[in-house]
Amino acid sequence: MSNSGGSSPFLDRPNIEDLRKEDDVVRDELIKSLEYELNTVQNEFEIQNMRLQRQYNHLEKQYKSNLDTLEKTLNDMQELHVRNESLNRNLSELKKEYSEVIEEKEIQFKTLNSDYDVVKEECEFLRNQYQTMASRVGDQEEYKKLETEASQNLIKMYENELSKQNKQIISLKKLVTEKDGELEDLKANGVIKTHQNYNTEELQELTVVNKLLKDQQVYVKELEEANMQQANELKKIRLQNESHHYWKNAFENLQKENSNFNATVQDLELENIKLKSQLTAWEAYGDDDKPDNILRELRLSKEEYKNLAFENEKLVIDMNNMKELNDEMAQERNQLLEIHSNFEVSVLNLKKLNHEIEQQKLLSFEECKILRKQLDDYLEAPESKMVNIPTKEVNNLKNLENMVDDYKSQTEDLTNELKKLNDQLMSQEPANKKRKTSDQVTINYSKRLNELQIENIRINKELQNSNNVVHLLEEKLKKLINLKERKIRILQLRDSPLLKDQFIKKKQLELLKAENEDLLSNIINSSTNDSIPRSVFETISFELQQKEEEIFKTNKKFIRLKEMFNKKSLEFIDVVNSLLGFKLEFQQDGRVKIFSCFKPDRYLMADLTKNTLKSNLQTDVDNFEELLHLWVEDRGQIPCFLAKITLLLWESSNKYQ
């Protein structure tokens, strides 16, 4: 029952339909996942593209507005320059007139100086005469002073004698009154009448007493007469002294009036001499020019001079305002240049993106080449391997090849157009020559850019589809050839410093080449035009931009360091306050204000330049001056002094609590 030539039903055969279904399922899942990734990438790309388009439109609007403002400012600057030139001309004319007036005034001043010398000599002669008169009067005054001193001495002597005599008179009057009292007592008592048997001795004593009394009365009368005479003499001497003072004051007043009269006489003589000299000068010019007419002209010239000076002040104020306006316009121009530089930076960023896109394009080209080689190898394989591949897949491969070729041709066209656009953007003419043509060109460029962007989106979609097909083909090739190849990934930073440096160097090279070509063309043409090529301005502006970026970085670093310094200084002040109990406040001119934590409203002011110490703690610390003298002046220990004050303030604050 052996069947050698036939096939047994128990042998396993591969089910081709099941394998195909599994492959189709895997392929559909891969297609769906790749389509999802493609859609996400496409959406991100469109969003980024729209954002860049908006930024580009915004920058373009800013550039146009800045160009408008630049043209306006340039027109205003031209008007201001014209006005400034006219004002400078008027000012030079006024300066010439002013110099002529100054020369005339100098001539008049020289003539007046000569007249002044003559008058000065006369004044010296009169001054000498006055000095001789004054010396005589001074001698007489000294003689009068000596007489008054002698009379005052006599008056003092008489006053002393009068005081002595007055004292004697007062004492004698007292004796007389006492004796009169005794006599009245005797008379009242009737001692003389009743006493009949009195002795001769008593009578003799009484007679002696009566004589003494009479002599004393006579002497008193004589003293009174002498006193009256001396009083009259004193009155006469006082009257003479008063008259002397009166005449002395009168003489001084007359001297003052005489000096004033002499001064007025000298002034009048000076005016007379001036008038005579002016009359002689006027007579020399002729009879027509009278003094009244010349004075009237002089007044009118003075008024004109005042008006011209006022106009000059106005012109100076206008010049200052013009300078301020010029400065403001310069600031606006600098701002516009900054905006222009920012616009150029944005253009550079767009070029960077373009460069990245080109790199991605090159990578895609390389991948397409690799796939093309693999397809060629696959197609060149022997027919024994191609038996299992259906005709549909072969047709799909051919279609894919055609699509890759179309994509390649379209990308090459786009790259050529992008290069043309970049060349046109780099070789743009200055905007100040023809405004309308530049606006039209920019509108055409924007339209062309929009069209290119739309084509780019469409091509990107096709590229994604082709990438999906390429992925499927790669998977099939992997399965067929059983090669485990790894994907090549190029890691790259978006804003690496190396790329930035390369872009800057490349830009500098391009600008220097353009500048060299323009300068060589000017030398070859040997043109006498004083204008500078635009390439020179572009190189200078690019260098300026780089310098501004460096300055911005340094300023940012300086601000950061300043913030750190302020932070650390505040931390230092807080540490000193928490550890030592004092808050330090550094002021200008080397002064330091020290506040205690126990009395924040009180302070010590230390001046480090003048080496002084001021405070308002005298009310809170009783022996403040003693502590200052002990610790600072005698011992020279300011920390001990501050520690003592903190202890006292702590004790006072605890007492109040």
TrEMBL record:
Q: What is this protein called?
A: Spindle assembly checkpoint component MAD1
A single GO cellular-component term from the record reads: mitotic spindle
PANTHER family, per the entry? MITOTIC SPINDLE ASSEMBLY CHECKPOINT PROTEIN MAD1, MITOTIC SPINDLE ASSEMBLY CHECKPOINT PROTEIN MAD1 MITOTIC ARREST DEFICIENT-LIKE PROTEIN 1
Q: Which GO terms describe its biological process?
A: activation of mitotic cell cycle spindle assembly checkpoint; attachment of mitotic spindle microtubules to kinetochore; cell division; mitotic DNA integrity checkpoint signaling; mitotic spindle assembly checkpoint signaling; negative regulation of protein import into nucleus during spindle assembly checkpoint; nucleocytoplasmic transport
Statement: the UniProt record of this protein carries the keyword Transmembrane = no
Keywords on this record?
Cell cycle, Cell division, Coiled coil, Mitosis, Nucleus
Cell location: Nucleus
Main localization, broad class = nucleus
Q: Does the keyword Aminoacyl-tRNA synthetase apply?
A: no
* Residue ranges the record marks as coiled coil: 42-175, 220-278, 312-342, 397-424, 449-483
Q: Which Pfam families does this one have?
A: MAD (PF05557)
* Family as reported in the entry's similarity comment: Belongs to the MAD1 family.
Tell me which domain of life the UniProt entry assigns to the organism this sequence originates from.
Answer: Eukaryota
